[in-house]
Amino acid sequence: MSSTPLLKVEGLKVSYGHIEAVKGIDFELHDGQITTLVGANGAGKSTTLLALSGLVKKAAGRVVLDGQDVTQLSPHRIVSGGMVQVAEGRATLTTLTVHENLELGAYTRSDGRAQRAEDLERIYTLFPRLKERTGGLAGNLSGGEQQMLAIGRALMAKPRVLLLDEPSMGLAPIIVQDIFRTLREINQAGLTIFLVEQNVRQALKIADRAYVIETGKIVLEGSGRDLLGNPKVQDAYLGG
Ligand SMILES: Nc1ncnc2c1ncn2[C@@H]1O[C@H](COP(=O)(O)OP(=O)(O)O)[C@@H](O)[C@H]1O
Ligand SMILES: [Mg+2]
Predict the structure, then answer these.
(1) Does the model's pTM come out above 0.70?
(2) Among 14, 25, 108, 194, which is least packed, fewest CB within 10 Å?
(3) Nearest atom of ligand 1 to the alpha carbon of 19
(4) Are 208 and 12 in contact (CB under 8 A)?
């Protein structure tokens, strides 16, 4: 494994009032890898992502992105610094077209039109369904297509790290496979991915590195393959 992580998180704590949802966790993402954080409903996965994106207050801890301390940056600065989250529940703008949603993803960029047009084409190549429906309203897309649009929109921000919160949620298994295959493709093109999932099996299958979170604490870590074969993981998350 490479020496310096692209993202390093140390001692992260997040509280909602008197409830400590994330209780001091450490993890790192390495350049070009897929890292996953898996755990049950309520374990603290979304809270961790929201804290990385600056959308909830960190009670303690440090987040370092490519050597830069981003712990205190505003959500906007975090996005322009290269860490971009695909929202849970997809959250596309349903009254805008597919094309408009993708254009909005580029709003933090300062580079030119030509570059954005090129990236748009790349996204349409990755998701041919989106190209077919470019002028249609996002609200008329299927669940799987909306997830693809949400990912495409995040890619339009030109991230260095893509954060995903349960992209499999509410989707049929065959669509989940499709989404995860595409994530692999995006990763193989060089993008570092942090995937938060309750679908432990699918997430571990595509992950280079994995962490298991239980009630706000990381209880296991290892390669995706190691954790897939770990009896504790099998008992608790893979149906034995
Ligand atoms: N806005 C909130 N206010 C109070 N408690 C919250 C809020 N969001 C999440 N929690 C609590 O924090 C814990 C972690 O939640 P969450 O990060 O959403 O878990 P996960 O994404 O793993 O399902 C849970 O106990 C949840 O009930
Ligand atoms: Mg969640």
Answers:
(1) yes
(2) 108
(3) 5
(4) no
